[in-house]
Amino acid sequence: MGTKKPVVSPSRIGTPAQPKLGTPKYGLLKFMIMVLKKAFLFLWLLSASMAHCQKQDKLDLTMKDYDQWNTLVAGDLSPQGTWLSYRLAYNGGVDTLFVKGTKTEKVYPFPQGRKVLFGSDEKWALVFAEGALILLDLPQGKQKVWDKVISGQFMGNSKFVLFEKLMEEGKELMIMELASGRTTNIDMIKEYTVSPNGNKVAYILNDNAVAILNPARGLGAKVLFRENPLPRKHLVWNPDSDALAFLEEFIENGDKAPNHRIHFIEDLAHAKEYFILDPSSPSSPVYGKTILYNPSFTPLAIAPDNGNLIFYLKGDTESDNNEDEVQVWRSGDRLEYPRNLLEGDPKGRPKLACWFPKTDRLLEIMDNERYGAYLTEDKKKAIVFDPHRYEPQPESYGPTDLWLMDLATGKREFIVGHQSYKTGFLGASPNNRYINYYKNRQWWSFDFTTGHHVLLSHNINDLEQKSYPGGQQPSHGVAGWTADSKFLIIHSEYDVWLLSPNGKEQIRLTDGKSQNIRYRVVTDLNRKKTHFSLYDPIGRTFDLRDGLVLESFDLNDKSMGYFRWTTKGKPTKMITKKAKLAHLKKAADSENFIYTLQRADHSPQLLYMDANFKSKSMVRTNVQQENYGWGKTELIAYTNSAGDQLHGVLHYPAGYIEGRQYPMVVNIYETQSQYFHNYFNPTVYNTNGFCPTIYTTDDYLVLYPDIAHQDGEPGPSAVDCVEAAVKKVVDMGVADREHIGLIGYSFGGYQTAFIVSQSNTFAAAVSGCGYVDLVGNSLSLDKGTRSNMWRYQTHQKRMGASLYEDFQGFVDNSPITFAEHIETPLMSVTGTRDTQVDPQESMKLHLALRSLKKEHTLVLYPGEGHVITTPKFQKDLTLKTKAWFDYYLKKIPIPKEMGL
């Protein structure tokens, strides 16, 4: 007979009945299962209770708490690495600069401090704070303060300090010997400049007298030129600090704009070699021409060997830009009409020129056919070109034909045709023998001596960035040249390479490709000098005897590291962390470093690393975070319809309870998983109106998905990838599928508008400064000067074709085409002075949805551009965005003061 089942009274529910002796085995098994179920239920209730208690132990972060947070700004190391500087910036408090010892516990705070200059002897530092200059005795902590200081620096191997003060009657220059405290004051200063070697200062007084002073040889000045009624300005040293030039302004009869004479003293020690280039002298090679002065570009430079001076001459014709005249726009012109007014007239453009003072010979480097130029470092050669050679064309900066000019003879030699001169496509070696250029997906060199072109990167197949369709794609970058010009240092998709300019050697320094790790040279740390260029730097130099520091980025888990490479072998690990590492700097005269480390839940800290690569924390920021609930972050993986393996960053809410589903906001903009370890201060002052921490501390999930683009389909690609990412999170059981919001800004604003025209996944959306009409936008003017078409053909808008090559594609990728399908409550945001994306784009969508009687709110910020920069508007936008999502995702009424 079977055992009778015991009757359990209702008051005993949950308490298992005791088995009797002799219970069959199956009854015991049944009993054990029942016990385990009860135990699991108890443990689940206990864990939920503990999670609730833990959340209650932490404070809820509210807006009134945000001002406690600060932002770490890493500073510098002293030459021997015994002192460092950093700054903490606050939204609601006083920014403070700190100087701290790396071997001691000494810390010196300076409210409203801006920067620190360390002396070479580890004893002195100059601190600029609150309009004052503070001389800090580092070991003793003693301070000497001077008010109303404009600028200052150390001189003479830090034996002297020089600074410029603002006085009632004018500016004053003061030089103090640090050992003795002895000072000299120079009154009525107009301008000054310290020599490159730091030993001498040249200055111009208000009466236009010019003098130099070498404090190591006494505090008495040497007057080079007596007072003069004509204004003198723009003092320039040569690289060796033994020659000086300046401009002297004059106005000839009938002229409105000033002209200039160039004064040049080659031998300052004896003041014997003195030259003048005078446009007013009939015997001068520049007679009848105008020497320009414009501080926005380098107007005057001396060659390293003092053989020539470089400057600009005024164009041959005046710009004719009369707004009252009738405009005639001709489709056959190389440039669009507004752009043509600014830069299209070669005769009216300033021309780079070269003067040889010893022979009084002038060479105009630029002419009306080739009015673009780069100079080699020795100022003996120039690369000249016509920047508009192939206009109209579909790229931001079109290709051109490059010519090599010998400044000694003025002769030109053709180098290469149809070559991009954009930053990163062109460089020059420090020995002035080679140029390097990127063409047809390969790196090449051109040898000035032999006239030969050499392919350097043969058999390296991952040099090209596949950023945008159409046009010439950029490489993964070039770090620069070695100081001895034996190697060009380039980056492939994963690795760092040394390429010899003769094409015979290719040395791969890293093995990132096999590990899915990307390596890059830390260029600012190792940079010795920047090549002289009148437009952009065209190269950096690295002394391989000092080694290289490399940054690593693991594309699998987004961890980062630093490695030291030397000529002895493979890179040595300095540090690797599952964190974001940044701002690595090296002490000038020792093997000590500083860097910052942060994680999504770990506010940035500043660390010090010694020569053995041992690190210690010097500054922890925002320790008050420990008092508040804070979310965790997870890297998710998903696949789009094309089979691309993608990542997304999922931020969980503070006090997350497993099993509960939360509302979620999805923020989109191209790829963002590289920001997995980024820490976000809670703040209402956001240029795009969004801060994830505001949401994760208020029971929201926040997702940053990666988007992989198919050529010609920027809209559908976004729909595909974002939908796949959202499905992944919903399938994880953490997101409430009925309460998901979408936000994007700029290109993300466009994709947000397109997604909601194709999908009803989202309960609310915000589109910031996005374009909606690809047909109309492609036929508008970019910043009022040139056609926007290039952005579609070869840039971010990714159509890969012009409008009339793929008209239907432009229509099919336009949110405005599908406005009638938009059911998602949408808020659009723009600035009234946005020159990047015309505010009319947001207005078009608003008018379309208005005519369709669909819900839409448009917010325009007066006077704002493509990003919101005014703090009160940043706060307003952040609060409006939060209120919008709170209403549609949480059913919280929108406050009346939001005006929505």
From TrEMBL:
One of its GO terms (biological process) is proteolysis. One of its GO terms (molecular function) is serine-type endopeptidase activity. Signal peptide: none annotated. Keywords: Hydrolase. InterPro entries: 6-blade_b-propeller_TolB-like (IPR011042), AB_hydrolase_fold (IPR029058), Peptidase_S9_cat (IPR001375). Residues 723-891 form the Peptidase S9 prolyl oligopeptidase catalytic domain. The keyword Hydrolase applies. It holds the Pfam family Peptidase_S9. It comes from the Bacteria. This is S9 family peptidase. It comes from Gelidibacter salicanalis. The lineage of its organism: Bacteria, Pseudomonadati, Bacteroidota, Flavobacteriia, Flavobacteriales.
